[in-house]
């Protein structure tokens, strides 16, 4: 063989079926219409789906929680942490309270969120709130789900249709006036008009739904979330997610207002309890002061005393100082004892402890303040969850312990006051002894006046405290400030239409691509020249393009006046034969299995050689099926079989001339012999070939498939070049390693492959690239024309 493939050093089975990027790109180009259809369908479906989704909006508000240094909350947290109780940040507590069920329920009640409004749309309903042209008020308690269509007719009348109460469809006929009370199965209702929104909705039904307040609270509570606006800050960001912007803004505003009112109510609760205690003490002290003043008046009248001045001014000055100290201590002792009595009263265990400034040291006042704050928190938790809540029980335990601690502190404080008071009274007794010369009446008067001064001081003190408490009660400002009113973008945060469309685009591309790749992987047939070159080292002499469906196996497609793709393929095959085996004159055609087109290729190659001026004879060596004879429709009693059997010696008598081309002779089979293999093994085959060589330039042997019977191997002994026809898409490429083995073992002389039915124009899956550039331009034969150029395009 004159032609060798030096670059092919790989062994059989070394190559595999790998999909490259170029394969994928060419697959997409070859099947672009399927990809286009898939993308259009998927993107259209995704677009329609996004049109059915209800848009979701997000609105936010920012609130500053003022903590201002050490507060009662910090004292409570510290005490609870020491005693093993519940601790937590004040801001975190407020964040929880803001989204608590109780606050959201109040918002639902204020905004009537248990009633919703929707505008009917083609793909989906649009939620309405401030945009609704009507407002429906239900007076009776909720007992079942209600839905109905309210259609505004004009500024005075409306109609109700499709009324459904508890799954039962009812009807209300006639027009109704706005503001009239209607008695329906859902109870009494009133429909009021919002004139500013009427023009858009005249004649359009508005879907009105009523649900239970509990269900509405659960729905809107799920759309509210809180978080810190920034690290290290006490600003709380409140977020509301819903399908209507105006409703989300209204919910945020109402939530802040309700929260503000709750804080003020908690603050005033302590002041109210303190005011009640002060009023009780003022009533008692006022009565005692009146009794003392009445006693002083009677004493002066009985003893006819006008003034209370004495003679010993020095003793009186000292006595006055001591009396002042005694007065102060007795006042503090009296209030301390009152608070102690209040603490000991078991009926007031769940009430706040009065916190009177100036009574007790700083630690006692801090403990009372911490106790009151914890009591308020306990009452909040009790209202939310009940007495069996572990947190409430822990708070009760902590409150009892704190009340015991405060009671002990008050005992210590009262004991200390009494010790000081005893010392002061001892000093006073000593001074009184030294002024025994003072008249008895004056001494008694001074005693009564002293009692009067004590009561007056205590009474004045309580009046001042009442005024201070009244001022605190009048304060309506909470410890919060709204930093940002409800704000946010009017663009929905969901659904993400772009994401849906991009995903649909990807799916639309992936579906046909996946199907095509699976078909590629499932298909094990030879698909182009690249498969042959990957699995074998056998030269590929040519590729015969696919024929049109109307071109039959007996057709001769090669013509000296044609420059189409298939004609050029046979001309290129003719040139490659001269290049690979220049001196080869006996060419044998075979294949793996029937139907691969060896007879078609052999006939047309014979015509191509004849067009080039060569004398060609086509010998049908398929003694079993007489393929060439059937194709030309000729059945002789004499032919190759009779010559090989010795019944005929004159070759010229059994040759047929001009059946497929004037310059091509054919030697057909003749009658089918009973022993074709034995005939082909006789030496008369060599004699036939030698005789034909004398008359013809090329002898083409159209043989049987090599893997069906042994005839191909038998005939190959006289061949000088073996053309193995492989049909694209028919032969299983798993057989190619076996074909390579036959080539390596030299079973066929000068074995070469002709790829038949090749999809050169499509170049699908990347196979065949680089091998069809010469088709249509007549390389080796000089054929070129404008018609050929159009065919190439």
TrEMBL record:
InterPro entries, per the entry: AAA_dom, Bact_polysacc_biosynth/exp, GNVR, LPS_length_determ_N, P-loop_NTPase, Wzc-like_C
Keyword field contains Ribosomal protein: no
Source organism: Bacteroides zhangwenhongii
Transmembrane region(s): 32-50, 500-522
Subcellular location: Cell inner membrane
Cell inner membrane recorded as keyword: yes
Gene Ontology MF annotations: non-membrane spanning protein tyrosine kinase activity
Domain of life assignment: Bacteria
Keywords assigned by UniProt, alphabetized: ATP-binding, Cell inner membrane, Cell membrane, Kinase, Membrane, Nucleotide-binding, Transferase, Transmembrane, Transmembrane helix, Tyrosine-protein kinase
Topology in the lipid bilayer: Multi-pass membrane protein
EC number per UniProt: 2.7.10.2
Enzyme class per UniProt: transferase
Domain named AAA: residues: 585-707
Xref: Pfam families: AAA_31, GNVR, Wzz
Family: Belongs to the CpsD/CapB family. Belongs to the etk/wzc family.
Protein name per UniProt: non-specific protein-tyrosine kinase
Domain Polysaccharide chain length determinant N-terminal per the UniProt entry, residue ranges: 19-110
Taxonomic lineage: Bacteria, Pseudomonadati, Bacteroidota, Bacteroidia, Bacteroidales
Segments forming domain Tyrosine-protein kinase G-rich: 442-515
Primary location class: membrane
Swiss-Prot/TrEMBL catalytic activity: L-tyrosyl-[protein] + ATP = O-phospho-L-tyrosyl-[protein] + ADP + H(+)
